[in-house]
Specification:
By secondary structure, the chain is α+β, with helices and mostly antiparallel strands. Helices cover 42% and strands 21% of the residues. The chain is built from four helices and five strands. It has helices spanning 6-22, 74-82, 85-94, 100-109, and strands spanning 28-30, 42-48, 54-60, 66-68, 70-72. The strands form two sheets. A three-stranded antiparallel beta sheet has the order 2-3-4, with no helix packed on it. A two-stranded antiparallel sheet has the order 1-5. Strand 3 (54-60) and strand 4 form a beta hairpin. Helix 1 runs antiparallel to helix 3. It is globular.
């Protein structure tokens, strides 16, 4: 498992904050049951994702699946990815360039 030091996580989240705030208006939904077994009993294990976006993550008490309770709707995710917001957010968090040329270069190597 990859662990990040809390000081580094706070630094990365501060860098992402303007993008996170810009994404706050994306339409969201709430998942009330486990995607795998359908159980409604879960334990909230996080209230923010790694970027700092307010989204609860839960673990199912029946089967152990870890899943997002609060997530973007299908149109919300579509806009998030099509607008390039995901690439910008990921690049900001990782401290890497976000441009298509950089991504294409990585994909060639991959």
């Amino acid at each position: 498992m990859f662990l990040i030091h809390p000081v580094d996580l706070r630094r990365r989240r501060r860098l992402c904050l303007p993008l996170v705030q810009a994404l706050s208006g994306i339409e969201r939904g709430c998942v009330k049951c486990c995607n795998v077994c359908g159980a409604e009993e879960n334990v909230i294990i996080a209230v923010r994702d790694r970027y700092g976006i307010g989204a609860r993550t839960a673990i199912c008490r029946k089967c152990g699946l870890v899943y997002l309770v609060d997530r973007f709707t299908a149109p919300g995710y579509s806009g998030f990815y099509q607008s390039g917001s995901y690439r910008m957010l990921s690049a900001c968090y990782n401290g890497t360039p976000a441009g298509n040329d950089h991504i294409l270069g990585l994909q060639r190597d991959y």
